[in-house]
Amino acid sequence: MGATTFHALEIAIPTGGLAVVAYLVVGLVIGVESMGVPLPGETTLIAAALLASQGDLNVVFVIAAAATGAIIGDSVGYFIGRKAGRGLFERLGRRFHHFSPDRIEKAEKYFHKYGVWTVFFGRFVALLRIFAGPMAGMLRMHYPRFLAANAAGGIAWSATIGVVAYQVGDNADKIFGEVSLWALVAVGVAAVTAYTVYKLRKRRGDAVEAAPAANVADVVRAESADA
Questions:
Q1: Contacts of 96 (CB under 8 A, 6+ apart)
Q2: Closest C-alpha among 151, 158, 127 to residue 46
Q3: Dist CA 166 CA 160 (whole Å)
Q4: Which of 50, 74, 169, 215 lies in the 20 to 30 Å Cα band around 177?
Q5: Cα 88 off chain centre by
Q6: How far apart are CA 181 and CA 67, in angstroms?
Q7: pLDDT score at 216
């Protein structure tokens, strides 16, 4: 980010008493996102950490606000999901594409397969970050286990993103952009590889299916010749 941008942000969020408002905003945005509302929680955390790298905020308070919002928001989302059940996701699916049946089904598979690890690592994935709390509640996950994974994931995510953004400072946009670019390349390579494997397996399967048919035809012709 350029000096002009940071100067504008300094005016909006000075280092004085209004810095408290910034911490509250970070916690609130991340908390509401964790309840199941699609908000830019990670972007808010990165922006606050960048302000901290310029001396406008304290990075420790930024990380603490983010972790607190994540833990409380996920817990509120858990109890909302536990009380409302699957009907909540069906109603939301009719209004928001984030809650489409396909995405709900995918998130539910992750929960059934990985359990509390989905809550922990889901904090680092945009889609699961929104679903984790309500989905865990809907599936009646044991709350103490959920809370432990939720707290660990929230703290780890907040500290990781906050410290990285704080350390890279002015180069954050460039670095995060490069990371996104390489992630896109990796996804592209994986997609091409998967498609190639799929075509090879399909071709092999077609060959296997065709072989018995050819053998049967040979047997019929042989029997006709004997007759």
A1: 38
A2: 158
A3: 10
A4: 74
A5: 20
A6: 28
A7: 45
